[in-house]
Amino acid sequence: MKIKYIWILTCLIGFMACNDREDFEMIEPEVELPPATPGSADFSNFVALGSSFTAGFTDGALFSVSQNYSLPNILSQQFEIVGGGSITQPLTNDNFGGLALAGNRIPGFDPRLVFGGAGPVPLESLIGPVTVTTDIALNNPPGPFGNLGVPGAKSFHLLAPGYGNLGNVLLGLANPYFVRMTGSTPDASVLQLALAQSPSFFSLWIGSNDVLGYAVSGGDGTDPITPLDGPPGVGFSQTYGALIASLTASGAGGVVANIPDVTTIPYLNTVPYNPVPLDAATAAAVNGAYALYNGGIQAALVALEGTGLFTEEEANARLISFEASETNAVVIEDESLTDLGAINPAFEGLPQIRQATAEDLIVLPASNFIGTLADPNNPLSVNGVAIPLEDKWVLLPSEQMEIIDATTAYNATILSAVNAAGLAFVDANALLDQLVNGGLTSGNFRLTSNLVTGGAFSLDGVHFTARGYALIANEFMKAIDATYGSNFDASGNLVDIGNYPTNYSPTLQ
Hints:
By secondary structure, this protein is α/β, with parallel strands linked by helices.
Protein backbone atom coordinates (compact mmCIF):
# COMPACT_ATOMS: atom_id res chain seq x y z
CA MET A 1 0.00 0.00 0.00
CA LYS A 2 2.79 2.42 0.84
CA ILE A 3 4.41 1.77 -2.56
CA LYS A 4 1.19 2.80 -4.31
CA TYR A 5 1.01 6.12 -2.47
CA ILE A 6 4.69 6.83 -3.21
CA TRP A 7 4.03 6.24 -6.91
CA ILE A 8 1.06 8.61 -6.90
CA LEU A 9 3.09 11.30 -5.14
CA THR A 10 5.94 10.85 -7.65
CA CYS A 11 3.52 11.34 -10.56
CA LEU A 12 2.10 14.49 -8.99
CA ILE A 13 5.55 15.96 -8.49
CA GLY A 14 6.49 15.15 -12.05
CA PHE A 15 3.27 16.75 -13.32
CA MET A 16 3.93 19.94 -11.42
CA ALA A 17 7.53 20.05 -12.58
CA CYS A 18 6.43 19.90 -16.21
CA ASN A 19 4.31 23.04 -15.89
CA ASP A 20 5.36 26.59 -15.29
CA ARG A 21 4.28 28.16 -12.01
CA GLU A 22 2.13 30.62 -13.84
CA ASP A 23 -0.10 27.75 -15.04
CA PHE A 24 -1.30 27.42 -11.50
CA GLU A 25 -1.48 31.06 -10.43
CA MET A 26 -4.04 33.64 -11.41
CA ILE A 27 -2.22 36.67 -12.71
CA GLU A 28 -3.96 39.93 -11.94
CA PRO A 29 -4.03 41.95 -15.14
CA GLU A 30 -2.50 45.39 -14.88
CA VAL A 31 -5.11 48.09 -15.10
CA GLU A 32 -4.02 51.07 -17.11
CA LEU A 33 -5.15 54.21 -15.34
CA PRO A 34 -6.15 57.28 -17.29
CA PRO A 35 -3.84 60.29 -17.20
CA ALA A 36 -4.61 62.86 -14.50
CA THR A 37 -6.69 65.83 -15.56
CA PRO A 38 -7.95 68.91 -13.69
CA GLY A 39 -11.22 68.89 -15.59
CA SER A 40 -12.64 72.40 -15.64
CA ALA A 41 -10.82 73.43 -12.43
CA ASP A 42 -7.86 75.81 -12.53
CA PHE A 43 -5.47 75.02 -9.69
CA SER A 44 -2.74 77.41 -10.81
CA ASN A 45 -3.34 79.75 -7.87
CA PHE A 46 -4.81 77.90 -4.92
CA VAL A 47 -5.69 79.69 -1.67
CA ALA A 48 -7.13 78.01 1.44
CA LEU A 49 -9.19 79.88 4.04
CA GLY A 50 -10.33 78.53 7.38
CA SER A 51 -9.36 77.89 10.96
CA SER A 52 -7.28 75.25 12.72
CA PHE A 53 -8.44 72.38 10.48
CA THR A 54 -6.98 74.34 7.57
CA ALA A 55 -3.81 75.47 9.37
CA GLY A 56 -2.68 71.93 10.23
CA PHE A 57 -3.18 72.28 13.99
CA THR A 58 -2.61 69.00 15.84
CA ASP A 59 -1.76 67.78 19.35
CA GLY A 60 -2.88 71.12 20.79
CA ALA A 61 -0.41 73.24 18.83
CA LEU A 62 0.83 74.42 15.47
CA PHE A 63 4.39 73.37 14.60
CA SER A 64 6.36 73.10 11.40
CA VAL A 65 5.97 69.37 10.79
CA SER A 66 2.24 69.50 11.43
CA GLN A 67 1.95 72.36 8.94
CA ASN A 68 3.71 70.31 6.28
CA TYR A 69 0.93 67.76 6.71
CA SER A 70 -1.84 70.36 6.63
CA LEU A 71 -4.91 69.75 4.50
CA PRO A 72 -4.08 72.57 2.01
CA ASN A 73 -0.49 71.39 1.63
CA ILE A 74 -1.60 67.83 0.89
CA LEU A 75 -4.11 69.15 -1.64
CA SER A 76 -1.58 71.48 -3.23
CA GLN A 77 0.89 68.65 -3.77
CA GLN A 78 -1.77 66.68 -5.64
CA PHE A 79 -2.92 69.76 -7.57
CA GLU A 80 0.62 70.12 -8.90
CA ILE A 81 0.15 66.83 -10.74
CA VAL A 82 -2.49 68.49 -12.92
CA GLY A 83 -0.79 71.85 -13.39
CA GLY A 84 -1.37 73.51 -10.05
CA GLY A 85 1.17 75.70 -8.30
CA SER A 86 2.78 75.11 -4.93
CA ILE A 87 1.36 76.71 -1.82
CA THR A 88 3.18 78.94 0.68
CA GLN A 89 2.51 78.47 4.40
CA PRO A 90 3.37 80.66 7.41
CA LEU A 91 5.64 78.00 8.89
CA THR A 92 6.51 78.15 12.55
CA ASN A 93 10.15 78.16 13.66
CA ASP A 94 10.27 74.89 15.58
CA ASN A 95 8.54 71.61 16.35
CA PHE A 96 7.81 72.49 19.96
CA GLY A 97 4.71 74.48 19.14
CA GLY A 98 3.59 77.51 21.09
CA LEU A 99 3.99 81.22 20.45
CA ALA A 100 5.99 84.00 22.05
CA LEU A 101 5.69 87.79 22.05
CA ALA A 102 8.95 89.72 22.36
CA GLY A 103 10.62 86.77 24.06
CA ASN A 104 7.78 85.94 26.42
CA ARG A 105 5.41 83.04 25.95
CA ILE A 106 1.84 83.99 25.16
CA PRO A 107 -0.49 82.42 27.76
CA GLY A 108 -2.70 79.75 26.24
CA PHE A 109 -0.36 79.21 23.26
CA ASP A 110 1.70 76.40 24.70
CA PRO A 111 3.96 73.68 23.27
CA ARG A 112 2.34 70.57 21.87
CA LEU A 113 1.00 67.51 23.65
CA VAL A 114 2.72 64.13 23.48
CA PHE A 115 1.77 60.61 24.52
CA GLY A 116 2.89 59.95 28.07
CA GLY A 117 2.22 56.23 28.22
CA ALA A 118 -1.32 56.46 29.55
CA GLY A 119 -2.61 59.50 27.70
CA PRO A 120 -1.81 63.02 26.48
CA VAL A 121 0.67 65.05 28.53
CA PRO A 122 2.44 68.38 27.93
CA LEU A 123 5.70 68.07 25.97
CA GLU A 124 7.74 69.69 28.72
CA SER A 125 6.57 67.14 31.28
CA LEU A 126 8.69 64.59 29.42
CA ILE A 127 11.65 66.50 27.99
CA GLY A 128 11.90 69.47 30.34
CA PRO A 129 11.65 73.20 29.58
CA VAL A 130 11.90 74.33 25.98
CA THR A 131 12.41 77.72 24.38
CA VAL A 132 9.54 78.63 22.08
CA THR A 133 11.18 80.31 19.10
CA THR A 134 8.15 81.36 17.07
CA ASP A 135 7.90 84.99 18.14
CA ILE A 136 5.13 87.10 16.60
CA ALA A 137 7.01 90.33 17.31
CA LEU A 138 10.41 89.26 16.02
CA ASN A 139 10.38 86.72 13.20
CA ASN A 140 7.20 86.49 11.18
CA PRO A 141 7.69 85.00 7.70
CA PRO A 142 6.96 87.02 4.54
CA GLY A 143 3.81 86.35 2.54
CA PRO A 144 1.62 86.17 0.68
CA PHE A 145 0.38 82.85 2.01
CA GLY A 146 -1.74 80.34 0.19
CA ASN A 147 -2.64 78.69 3.48
CA LEU A 148 -4.69 81.27 5.38
CA GLY A 149 -5.92 78.88 8.04
CA VAL A 150 -6.03 80.70 11.39
CA PRO A 151 -6.37 78.50 14.48
CA GLY A 152 -9.18 79.78 16.67
CA ALA A 153 -10.87 81.85 13.96
CA LYS A 154 -14.65 81.95 13.79
CA SER A 155 -16.60 82.74 10.63
CA PHE A 156 -16.82 86.48 11.28
CA HIS A 157 -13.10 86.72 12.03
CA LEU A 158 -12.35 86.18 8.34
CA LEU A 159 -13.93 89.58 7.67
CA ALA A 160 -12.52 91.39 10.70
CA PRO A 161 -10.03 94.25 10.10
CA GLY A 162 -7.24 94.37 12.67
CA TYR A 163 -7.58 90.68 13.53
CA GLY A 164 -3.91 90.31 12.59
CA ASN A 165 -2.59 93.57 14.04
CA LEU A 166 0.16 93.05 16.60
CA GLY A 167 -1.01 96.10 18.53
CA ASN A 168 -4.38 94.45 19.14
CA VAL A 169 -3.05 91.23 20.68
CA LEU A 170 -2.83 92.43 24.26
CA LEU A 171 -6.29 93.98 23.87
CA GLY A 172 -7.72 90.59 22.98
CA LEU A 173 -8.80 91.86 19.54
CA ALA A 174 -6.21 90.05 17.43
CA ASN A 175 -5.21 86.46 16.87
CA PRO A 176 -1.46 85.84 17.33
CA TYR A 177 -1.47 83.21 14.59
CA PHE A 178 -2.91 85.70 12.12
CA VAL A 179 -0.41 88.39 13.16
CA ARG A 180 2.20 86.15 11.53
CA MET A 181 0.43 86.47 8.16
CA THR A 182 -0.47 90.14 7.74
CA GLY A 183 3.02 91.57 7.21
CA SER A 184 2.98 95.16 5.94
CA THR A 185 -0.84 95.25 5.98
CA PRO A 186 -1.59 94.59 9.66
CA ASP A 187 -5.24 95.60 9.44
CA ALA A 188 -6.06 93.48 6.39
CA SER A 189 -8.67 90.79 6.94
CA VAL A 190 -8.21 87.13 6.07
CA LEU A 191 -10.58 87.57 3.14
CA GLN A 192 -8.69 90.63 1.88
CA LEU A 193 -5.39 88.74 1.94
CA ALA A 194 -7.00 85.92 -0.01
CA LEU A 195 -8.57 88.18 -2.64
CA ALA A 196 -5.31 90.12 -3.09
CA GLN A 197 -3.84 86.92 -4.55
CA SER A 198 -6.59 86.59 -7.20
CA PRO A 199 -7.11 82.88 -6.50
CA SER A 200 -8.16 80.63 -9.35
CA PHE A 201 -9.30 78.00 -6.87
CA PHE A 202 -10.00 78.11 -3.15
CA SER A 203 -10.97 75.92 -0.24
CA LEU A 204 -13.12 77.18 2.62
CA TRP A 205 -13.65 75.28 5.84
CA ILE A 206 -14.92 77.65 8.50
CA GLY A 207 -17.57 77.62 11.20
CA SER A 208 -16.52 74.86 13.59
CA ASN A 209 -15.17 77.37 16.10
CA ASP A 210 -18.51 79.19 16.05
CA VAL A 211 -19.82 76.31 18.18
CA LEU A 212 -16.62 74.62 19.35
CA GLY A 213 -15.64 77.35 21.78
CA TYR A 214 -18.97 76.96 23.54
CA ALA A 215 -18.58 73.19 23.61
CA VAL A 216 -15.05 72.93 24.99
CA SER A 217 -15.82 75.53 27.68
CA GLY A 218 -18.65 73.35 28.93
CA GLY A 219 -21.23 75.85 27.74
CA ASP A 220 -20.38 78.12 30.67
CA GLY A 221 -21.10 81.27 28.65
CA THR A 222 -17.53 82.52 28.32
CA ASP A 223 -17.45 81.65 24.60
CA PRO A 224 -20.97 81.96 23.18
CA ILE A 225 -22.32 80.41 19.99
CA THR A 226 -22.29 82.76 17.01
CA PRO A 227 -25.82 83.91 16.16
CA LEU A 228 -27.24 82.62 12.90
CA ASP A 229 -28.53 86.01 11.78
CA GLY A 230 -26.97 89.45 11.74
CA PRO A 231 -25.01 91.58 9.27
CA PRO A 232 -21.75 90.30 7.74
CA GLY A 233 -19.17 90.15 10.48
CA VAL A 234 -21.81 89.36 13.10
CA GLY A 235 -24.27 86.66 12.03
CA PHE A 236 -23.13 83.37 10.54
CA SER A 237 -25.46 83.27 7.52
CA GLN A 238 -24.72 86.74 6.18
CA THR A 239 -21.02 86.37 6.95
CA TYR A 240 -20.82 83.09 5.08
CA GLY A 241 -22.76 84.50 2.16
CA ALA A 242 -20.35 87.42 1.95
CA LEU A 243 -17.34 85.08 1.96
CA ILE A 244 -18.68 82.94 -0.88
CA ALA A 245 -19.82 85.93 -2.93
CA SER A 246 -16.42 87.60 -2.64
CA LEU A 247 -14.38 84.49 -3.37
CA THR A 248 -16.37 83.58 -6.47
CA ALA A 249 -16.86 87.11 -7.84
CA SER A 250 -14.00 86.75 -10.32
CA GLY A 251 -14.90 83.25 -11.43
CA ALA A 252 -12.75 81.19 -9.04
CA GLY A 253 -13.74 77.60 -8.44
CA GLY A 254 -13.66 76.11 -5.00
CA VAL A 255 -14.36 73.33 -2.53
CA VAL A 256 -16.23 73.89 0.70
CA ALA A 257 -16.72 71.70 3.77
CA ASN A 258 -19.52 71.95 6.30
CA ILE A 259 -19.34 71.77 10.09
CA PRO A 260 -19.06 68.46 11.95
CA ASP A 261 -21.08 67.79 15.08
CA VAL A 262 -18.51 68.74 17.68
CA THR A 263 -20.47 67.05 20.48
CA THR A 264 -19.12 63.74 19.14
CA ILE A 265 -15.38 64.55 19.19
CA PRO A 266 -13.02 62.71 21.59
CA TYR A 267 -12.55 65.87 23.66
CA LEU A 268 -16.10 65.39 24.90
CA ASN A 269 -16.39 61.63 24.77
CA THR A 270 -13.28 60.20 26.40
CA VAL A 271 -13.73 60.95 30.11
CA PRO A 272 -16.55 58.77 31.52
CA TYR A 273 -19.33 60.29 33.57
CA ASN A 274 -18.70 57.70 36.31
CA PRO A 275 -14.95 57.51 36.95
CA VAL A 276 -15.00 57.64 40.77
CA PRO A 277 -13.79 54.52 42.66
CA LEU A 278 -14.92 54.24 46.30
CA ASP A 279 -14.70 51.53 48.92
CA ALA A 280 -17.63 50.84 51.25
CA ALA A 281 -16.34 52.98 54.10
CA THR A 282 -15.64 56.00 51.90
CA ALA A 283 -18.98 55.68 50.12
CA ALA A 284 -20.77 55.61 53.47
CA ALA A 285 -18.87 58.69 54.63
CA VAL A 286 -19.71 60.62 51.47
CA ASN A 287 -23.36 59.61 51.67
CA GLY A 288 -23.43 60.84 55.24
CA ALA A 289 -22.09 64.20 54.09
CA TYR A 290 -24.86 64.47 51.50
CA ALA A 291 -27.62 63.39 53.87
CA LEU A 292 -28.62 66.97 54.71
CA TYR A 293 -28.76 67.91 51.03
CA ASN A 294 -30.84 64.86 50.13
CA GLY A 295 -33.18 65.63 53.00
CA GLY A 296 -33.65 69.15 51.68
CA ILE A 297 -34.58 67.84 48.22
CA GLN A 298 -37.16 65.46 49.70
CA ALA A 299 -38.58 68.22 51.90
CA ALA A 300 -38.87 70.53 48.88
CA LEU A 301 -40.78 67.85 46.98
CA VAL A 302 -43.30 67.55 49.81
CA ALA A 303 -43.64 71.31 50.25
CA LEU A 304 -44.15 71.97 46.54
CA GLU A 305 -46.38 68.99 45.84
CA GLY A 306 -49.26 69.88 43.56
CA THR A 307 -47.73 73.16 42.39
CA GLY A 308 -46.16 71.71 39.25
CA LEU A 309 -43.00 73.68 40.06
CA PHE A 310 -40.90 70.72 41.22
CA THR A 311 -41.53 67.23 39.92
CA GLU A 312 -40.76 63.91 41.52
CA GLU A 313 -38.69 63.02 38.46
CA GLU A 314 -36.39 65.99 39.00
CA ALA A 315 -36.22 65.36 42.73
CA ASN A 316 -35.08 61.78 42.17
CA ALA A 317 -32.49 62.94 39.62
CA ARG A 318 -31.06 65.35 42.21
CA LEU A 319 -30.62 62.84 45.03
CA ILE A 320 -26.95 61.91 45.45
CA SER A 321 -25.85 58.42 46.38
CA PHE A 322 -22.47 56.66 46.25
CA GLU A 323 -21.65 52.99 46.67
CA ALA A 324 -18.69 50.65 46.91
CA SER A 325 -17.86 50.61 43.23
CA GLU A 326 -15.25 51.55 40.65
CA THR A 327 -17.84 53.47 38.63
CA ASN A 328 -19.52 56.13 40.74
CA ALA A 329 -20.87 59.12 38.82
CA VAL A 330 -19.35 62.53 39.52
CA VAL A 331 -21.42 65.28 41.12
CA ILE A 332 -21.98 68.28 38.84
CA GLU A 333 -23.55 71.71 38.90
CA ASP A 334 -26.57 72.03 36.63
CA GLU A 335 -28.02 75.50 36.16
CA SER A 336 -30.98 74.04 34.27
CA LEU A 337 -32.31 72.53 37.52
CA THR A 338 -35.05 74.32 39.42
CA ASP A 339 -33.80 77.07 41.71
CA LEU A 340 -35.74 75.96 44.75
CA GLY A 341 -34.68 78.93 46.85
CA ALA A 342 -36.25 81.31 44.33
CA ILE A 343 -39.57 79.49 44.75
CA ASN A 344 -39.55 79.08 48.53
CA PRO A 345 -37.13 80.96 50.84
CA ALA A 346 -37.13 77.93 53.12
CA PHE A 347 -34.92 76.21 50.58
CA GLU A 348 -32.52 79.10 50.04
CA GLY A 349 -29.02 77.80 49.57
CA LEU A 350 -30.05 74.35 48.37
CA PRO A 351 -27.62 73.93 45.46
CA GLN A 352 -28.52 73.07 41.86
CA ILE A 353 -26.49 69.88 41.72
CA ARG A 354 -26.92 66.24 40.74
CA GLN A 355 -24.88 63.24 39.74
CA ALA A 356 -23.90 63.00 36.10
CA THR A 357 -25.50 60.53 33.69
CA ALA A 358 -24.35 59.02 30.41
CA GLU A 359 -26.03 61.94 28.62
CA ASP A 360 -23.62 64.44 30.18
CA LEU A 361 -20.32 65.04 28.38
CA ILE A 362 -17.24 65.60 30.52
CA VAL A 363 -14.47 67.68 28.89
CA LEU A 364 -11.09 66.02 28.40
CA PRO A 365 -9.07 68.22 30.84
CA ALA A 366 -11.38 67.09 33.64
CA SER A 367 -9.48 63.80 33.67
CA ASN A 368 -6.66 65.65 35.47
CA PHE A 369 -9.05 67.51 37.79
CA ILE A 370 -11.53 64.91 39.04
CA GLY A 371 -10.27 63.39 42.28
CA THR A 372 -7.97 66.28 43.20
CA LEU A 373 -8.48 68.27 46.38
CA ALA A 374 -10.15 71.67 46.32
CA ASP A 375 -8.44 72.32 49.65
CA PRO A 376 -5.04 70.59 49.98
CA ASN A 377 -5.48 70.61 53.76
CA ASN A 378 -8.88 68.91 53.63
CA PRO A 379 -8.79 65.29 52.44
CA LEU A 380 -12.58 65.30 52.12
CA SER A 381 -12.67 68.16 49.57
CA VAL A 382 -12.48 65.87 46.56
CA ASN A 383 -13.41 67.52 43.28
CA GLY A 384 -16.22 65.67 41.58
CA VAL A 385 -17.27 63.98 44.83
CA ALA A 386 -17.66 66.36 47.77
CA ILE A 387 -17.09 69.38 45.52
CA PRO A 388 -19.40 69.41 42.46
CA LEU A 389 -17.80 70.00 39.07
CA GLU A 390 -18.41 73.53 37.78
CA ASP A 391 -20.24 74.21 34.55
CA LYS A 392 -17.00 74.54 32.57
CA TRP A 393 -16.20 70.86 33.08
CA VAL A 394 -19.48 69.46 31.78
CA LEU A 395 -21.56 69.92 28.64
CA LEU A 396 -25.16 69.33 29.68
CA PRO A 397 -27.77 67.75 27.35
CA SER A 398 -29.50 71.11 26.98
CA GLU A 399 -26.21 72.73 25.97
CA GLN A 400 -25.53 69.92 23.53
CA MET A 401 -28.86 70.62 21.85
CA GLU A 402 -27.95 74.29 21.47
CA ILE A 403 -24.80 73.22 19.61
CA ILE A 404 -26.60 70.67 17.45
CA ASP A 405 -29.34 73.15 16.53
CA ALA A 406 -26.80 75.84 15.62
CA THR A 407 -24.71 73.37 13.60
CA THR A 408 -27.78 72.21 11.69
CA ALA A 409 -28.68 75.81 10.84
CA TYR A 410 -25.10 76.68 9.85
CA ASN A 411 -24.88 73.64 7.60
CA ALA A 412 -28.13 74.54 5.87
CA THR A 413 -26.63 77.97 5.12
CA ILE A 414 -23.43 76.40 3.81
CA LEU A 415 -25.22 73.93 1.55
CA SER A 416 -27.46 76.64 0.12
CA ALA A 417 -24.47 78.88 -0.64
CA VAL A 418 -22.51 76.01 -2.18
CA ASN A 419 -25.38 74.94 -4.43
CA ALA A 420 -26.03 78.49 -5.58
CA ALA A 421 -22.37 79.00 -6.49
CA GLY A 422 -21.84 75.56 -8.03
CA LEU A 423 -18.93 74.68 -5.75
CA ALA A 424 -17.62 71.26 -4.71
CA PHE A 425 -18.99 70.15 -1.35
CA VAL A 426 -17.52 67.95 1.37
CA ASP A 427 -19.94 66.68 4.01
CA ALA A 428 -17.53 66.77 6.95
CA ASN A 429 -20.44 66.22 9.31
CA ALA A 430 -21.17 62.86 7.69
CA LEU A 431 -17.47 61.94 7.71
CA LEU A 432 -17.20 62.54 11.45
CA ASP A 433 -20.36 60.52 12.00
CA GLN A 434 -18.71 57.61 10.16
CA LEU A 435 -15.53 57.96 12.22
CA VAL A 436 -17.61 57.82 15.39
CA ASN A 437 -19.83 54.94 14.29
CA GLY A 438 -17.50 52.21 13.12
CA GLY A 439 -14.76 54.15 11.37
CA LEU A 440 -13.61 54.98 7.85
CA THR A 441 -11.41 52.78 5.69
CA SER A 442 -8.78 54.03 3.24
CA GLY A 443 -6.36 51.58 1.66
CA ASN A 444 -5.11 49.23 4.37
CA PHE A 445 -6.13 51.50 7.23
CA ARG A 446 -9.28 52.00 9.24
CA LEU A 447 -9.57 55.18 11.29
CA THR A 448 -11.99 55.81 14.13
CA SER A 449 -12.66 58.68 16.51
CA ASN A 450 -11.09 56.98 19.56
CA LEU A 451 -8.50 59.12 21.29
CA VAL A 452 -4.91 57.86 20.84
CA THR A 453 -5.85 54.50 19.29
CA GLY A 454 -8.25 55.61 16.54
CA GLY A 455 -5.66 57.23 14.30
CA ALA A 456 -7.89 60.08 13.12
CA PHE A 457 -7.81 62.48 16.08
CA SER A 458 -4.70 63.93 17.64
CA LEU A 459 -3.92 64.05 21.34
CA ASP A 460 -5.92 67.22 21.93
CA GLY A 461 -9.14 65.35 21.13
CA VAL A 462 -10.34 68.08 18.76
CA HIS A 463 -8.00 68.26 15.77
CA PHE A 464 -6.89 65.59 13.35
CA THR A 465 -3.64 63.69 13.01
CA ALA A 466 -1.66 63.99 9.80
CA ARG A 467 -3.28 60.73 8.73
CA GLY A 468 -6.68 62.17 9.53
CA TYR A 469 -5.96 65.24 7.41
CA ALA A 470 -4.81 62.95 4.57
CA LEU A 471 -8.09 61.04 4.78
CA ILE A 472 -10.01 64.31 4.56
CA ALA A 473 -7.84 65.54 1.68
CA ASN A 474 -8.93 62.49 -0.29
CA GLU A 475 -12.56 63.37 0.38
CA PHE A 476 -11.89 66.91 -0.83
CA MET A 477 -10.41 65.56 -4.05
CA LYS A 478 -13.33 63.20 -4.59
CA ALA A 479 -15.71 66.14 -4.20
CA ILE A 480 -13.66 68.18 -6.69
CA ASP A 481 -13.78 65.24 -9.13
CA ALA A 482 -17.58 65.13 -8.85
CA THR A 483 -18.04 68.85 -9.50
CA TYR A 484 -15.26 69.85 -11.87
CA GLY A 485 -14.60 66.66 -13.80
CA SER A 486 -11.08 66.14 -12.51
CA ASN A 487 -10.01 62.55 -11.92
CA PHE A 488 -7.77 62.39 -8.87
CA ASP A 489 -9.55 59.22 -7.78
CA ALA A 490 -9.80 57.48 -11.17
CA SER A 491 -6.19 58.30 -12.11
CA GLY A 492 -4.83 56.88 -8.85
CA ASN A 493 -3.81 60.25 -7.44
CA LEU A 494 -5.50 60.15 -4.08
CA VAL A 495 -2.90 59.98 -1.31
CA ASP A 496 -1.96 56.85 0.61
CA ILE A 497 -2.90 57.76 4.16
CA GLY A 498 -0.39 55.21 5.45
CA ASN A 499 2.36 57.63 4.43
CA TYR A 500 1.15 60.11 7.06
CA PRO A 501 1.90 59.71 10.79
CA THR A 502 -0.57 59.50 13.64
CA ASN A 503 1.79 60.72 16.37
CA TYR A 504 5.08 62.49 16.93
CA SER A 505 7.99 61.68 19.20
CA PRO A 506 8.67 64.03 22.15
CA THR A 507 12.16 64.47 20.71
CA LEU A 508 10.95 65.46 17.24
CA GLN A 509 13.42 67.93 15.73
